[in-house]
Amino acid sequence: MFRAEHAPATSAVPARKPPRWHRDREERTGVLAPGALAATAALVAMWPFTSVLAPGAWSLTVLTLVVAVVGTGMIVRHLLRRRAGWFRDATALLVQLVVAIAVLTLLVAGDTALFGIIPTSSSLTLFGALGAAAVEAIVFGSAPLDASPGLTAAMGAGFAVVAIVLDHLVAHRSAVLAIVVTGVVGAVPMIVTLGDTNVVWFVLFGVFALVLFRYTALQHPESPRRSSTSLAVAVGAAALVTTVAIAPALPVATNLAGTGVGVTVDASLRLGDDLRQPNPVEVLTVAAKGETAPYLRLTTLSRFDGRVWQPDDGELQSQEDGFGAPEWGEGIATEEQNTSIRILRMSSSWLPVPYPATAVQGLSASWRVSPDNRTLFSRSADAVGNDYTVSSTRLIPTLEQIRAIDAAEPTVDPDAEPVELPAIIADLAAEVTADETTDYDRLVTLQNWFRAQFAYSLETPVEEGFDGTGAEAVAQFLETRSGYCVHFAGAFALMAESLGMQVRIVVGYLPGSLSDEKRGTESVFSVTSDQLHSWPEVLFPGVGWVPFEPTASLGVPTAFRAGVTQSGGPGSPSTPAPTTAPRAEETSGPEVDRGDAANSPTGADDLRRLDPTPVVFTALGAVLLLLLPALIRFAERRTRLGRARRGDPAAAWAELRDTLIDLQLPVTDADTPRVRASGLVRENNVDPAALRRLTDAVEQANYARSGEVASDLAEPLRTVLTQLRDSVDRPTRMRAALLPRSLYAPRAAEPGVTV
Questions:
Q1: Number of neighbours of residue 206 by Cβ within 10 angstroms
Q2: Which among 224, 228, 218, 226 is positioned nearest to 27, based on CA atoms?
Q3: What is the spatial order of strands in the sheet that 357-361 belongs to?
Q4: Is 208 buried (19+), middle (13-18) or exposed (0-12) by CB count in 10 A?
Q5: For 461, how many CA atoms within 13 A lie in the half-sphere containing its CB?
Q6: At what angle do helices 149-171 and 57-79 cross, to 10 degrees?
Q7: What confidence tens digit (pLDDT) does each residue in 311-358 have?
């Protein structure tokens, strides 16, 4: 009766299953979420570089490469989702490298590549030159660096590698390593520039780290089915607040950016910071006949909008098409000359050339000719590392010829808004030149007035607040009467234009200092970074652009000589050289010690080589960063083996468990040590005697009444670990050594012996 009454009740109550706090297996992940996280990590790492690199093509290049690399990884993993993991990863890596090279070639050196994406020998040469230019800009430049082609290529290549590394780390749920790589790369700009802490970036980086940790943890088979979101948010917020509060107070000892010498030249008149660098370096050498060398121009600026002078951007043509028709007439005496130039430490999209250049040899086809101002420009190549020879024509008009020609009138752009200049500019121009009757005499008088009445100073414009090229800065310069070449050239140009003459400003280099070296029969001149210069030119029809040197104490002032009659016939022009040719001893800049070149066993013709120290240390740092997980795991293994040698079964069993995790062998805490040992013997051919010694030591420590433990367990542990590694394939062993999963997977509990 009792059984009958209670039987239904008993059968009606379902058996309660034990609570499941963890997943039973590792869930399959897709490709979209890991790819999106990897791309985000790369862009987070890129963000701080916007503070040390000027806006330019580099950001679009990096973005394109990151998307291409991550997208390629997603596609390959999806297509090979049913293949072995090692094959899928290896294929993804190989295809990503190919795609990265193709995209980088297309963006940086497409005109030298086959079909725009397959690098050729010309492409490799160009990449070598761009790499050297990037190293020079980084080592010798000062932030913010101009977005030169070299830096664009370097940033693209660097972040392609970073994106590939992050993509594979996130795909393998190596959250710790992915966060370390992102943080280290993103912190580089702040470290090398000693800049202020980028609080916004730190917060963004912290939020991304929490998201990546959250995603990785949820995918692990031993992660809880439920977790406290509020607790995670609170802990993350506390960590971010602590980081933001402490980071600004951390001391930084040294500047890793090199000497800070600015040798990156762009098409502007922002030369003040370059000229004020405390340690000038040799940027190029010039070989020419005689004891003088020509001025070297990079580019010209003709348009003034009231604030800045705009660079000339005329049509470009190939070197084979030449530099255009001559601007001078047949009655002007000329002299042909050749100038050999070697660029050592100058990064620019322009190459320095004497004026007027007529031909060039020794350059790749990526350098194009601008016939409007007879300069050389490239959209993809960089100046550093080039060694070339320029043929030019030296113009020698007589004083009578130049006086007989009126300067060309200014060109007026009908679409441009008129510029109102301060009255002091036109008033002073008219006052200084009131007694002259020809345009040339007016210009010479104006030039001599600047050189006699003004002083050269790099500091006065900063102290007085007119360190610029605008009309107001020129007006203040005319009142203060102290400044550097930019102010002299700008004031001279605006005053000449107010007199009805067509003018432009040239950015280039002074002739440099005569050295003791010889290159054949030619003298070698050394040009340093502080000899970056600007000067005005005025157009005289039938003669061309005539340079003037108003900067006090620098260069050589223009002064043509009167013509004399030669025996060849009455009235023929004379050939004495006008004093427009600069003399090396009158230029500025300290002498550069060239004893290293003079003592070189290969002679003066060898190119200067970069100091390899920064590159070596950077490479060693990158290798150390990549090997850091392996080094940490190695140190941990050595420590545990030492403890196992002293008879610690917990250390021995913890090392065994972590090795199984590294080798991606099945691990579950539901198995007893004896059950796990039998599985390893059966599936991995592990020595049963060695395993038995380990399991006996663990069981004795857990269950024996006496506190006695086994002696030396290191020997059987080494035997078991070696046999486990031999039981898996080579790619798995390599991943276990270089990227040990046990560093971020749940660890064995070492304080107690229970496993």
A1: 19
A2: 218
A3: 357-361, 387-396, 333-343, 282-288, 522-528, 513-519
A4: buried
A5: 28
A6: 30
A7: 887 788 999 998 988 888 888 888 899 999 999 888 888 899 999 999
Q: How far apart are CA 672 and CA 691, in angstroms?
A: 13
Among 62-71, 112-121, 661-670, 701-710, the least confident range: 701-710
Residue 353's alpha-carbon distances to 282, 506, 558, 611, in angstroms, are 17, 12, 19, 27
Percent of the chain with pLDDT over 90: 16
Residues 461-500, buried b or exposed e (16+ Cβ, 10 A)? beebebbbbbbebbbbbbebebbbbbbbbbbbbbbbbbbe
Distance of alpha carbon 190 from the chain centroid: 14
Q: What are phi and psi of 498, to 5 degrees?
A: -65, -20
Contacts of 618 (CB under 8 A, 6+ apart): none
Q: Is 179 exposed, middle or buried (0-12, 13-18, 19+ CB in 10 A)?
A: buried
Q: What is the 3-state secondary structure (H, E, C) of 570-583?
A: CCCCCCCCCCCCCC
Query: Cα separations (Å) of 117 from 105, 108, 238, 705?
Result: 5, 10, 48, 73
Residue of 650 and 669 predicted with greater confidence: 650
User: What pLDDT was estimated at residue 275?
Assistant: 67
Contacts of 103-109 with CB under 8 Å at 24 or more apart are 103/64, 103/65, 103/68, 103/160, 104/61, 104/65, 104/153, 104/156, 104/157, 104/160, 107/57, 107/61, 107/64, 107/65, 107/156, 108/61, 108/149, 108/152, 108/153, 108/156, 108/380, 109/153, 109/366, 109/380
CA–CA gap between residue 439 and residue 443 (Å, rounded): 6
Average pLDDT, the chain: 76
* Beta-sheet pairing, 296-304 with 503-509: antiparallel
By percentage, how much of the chain surpasses pLDDT 70? 74
Residue 369 half-sphere exposure toward CB, CA atoms < 13 A: 19
